[in-house]
Amino acid sequence: MCLAVFAFLGAGDQDARFGALGHKLMCVCSCNQVLLECNHVGCRYSDRMRGELAAALERPDSDDLVLQAFVQKYGPTVLLAPTATGFNRLAWVMPYLALVLGLTTVVFIIRAWKMRPLTIPVGGIAPASPAEIDRFRDQARRETEL
């Protein structure tokens, strides 16, 4: 009984590892699905890739080595999420950086537009301020009273 428990204990780890690695890989049949969830009818790749994954887990390689073997064979698009090293890190950060820089630029432009001085056309009349309009109204009321 104890021997069976230890045998199944190791099998559970292997299944969990298979599931974890299988959910980090994409099927290369262009269905854009996770390898273990590929239900593409007539898919020539998913069964073969699952077999390769099971065979790779039989060896004492680490998870990173198994993933690297798949990247070498099928290319970097086999990974569900790109690695966070080198150029990939820049590719993850760049959209957020562009958003922040864009919003900052918009804020500066709006502030500059608000603070710009009023331009008076040549030979034209400058627009009156609210205080001047109130003064003109008071003057008009005084002058029109009888």
User: What is the general shape?
Assistant: rod-shaped
State which percent range the strand residues make up: under 5%
> Number of helix segments?
5
Order of helices and strands: HHHHH
> Tell me about the biggest sheet?
none
**For the CA atoms, what is the radius of gyration?**
35 Å
Low-confidence stretches: 1-11
Decide which structural class fits the backbone. mainly alpha
Please give the share of residues in helix. Answer: 55-70%
Number of strands: 0
Average pLDDT taken over every residue = 82
Distance between the termini: 117 Å
Task: Give structural notes.
With 146 residues, the protein is mostly helical. 62% of the residues lie in helices and 0% in strands. It is built from five helices and no strands. The protein is rod-shaped. The N and C termini lie far apart (117 Å). Residues 1-11 have low confidence and may be disordered.
